[in-house]
Amino acid sequence: MSRTVVIGIGIAIVFCTVVAVMWQLMPYPRKHVDYMVMGAAGTMVSMAVLFFLLTKAGQKKSDVFFKKRKQ
Fold first, then answer.
1. 27 within some domain
2. Is 38 a member of any domain?
3. Could you report the per-residue pLDDT of 21-61, keeping only the tens digit for each?
4. Domains: count for the chain
5. Which domain holds residue 37?
6. SS3 42
7. SS3 labels along 2-48
8. Is 34 helix (H, G, I), strand (E, B) or coil?
9. CA-to-CA distance for 9 and 56, rounded, in angstroms?
10. Burial class (CB in 10 A: 0-12, 13-18, 19+), 2
11. Model's pTM, two decimal places?
């Protein structure tokens, strides 16, 4: 499998896990806003994990955000 597919599946698993945990933590008479909060929290955590993976795990240089120009 390619690295992109593995990262995509991992992010989907993180999203589902966060939503499942929030599902258990929210009290039962749920409103529409509660489902939106669950989805937003899952998206926020999964995007933070993706950001970490793309910046730290595959880091080969010491400077990720800036490239030095050749002179």
1. yes
2. yes
3. 988 888 888 888 888 888 899 999 999 988 888 887 666 66
4. 1
5. 3-45
6. helix
7. CHHHHHHHHHHHHHHHHHHHHHHHCCCCCCHHHHHHHHHHHHHHHHH
8. helix
9. 19
10. exposed
11. 0.70
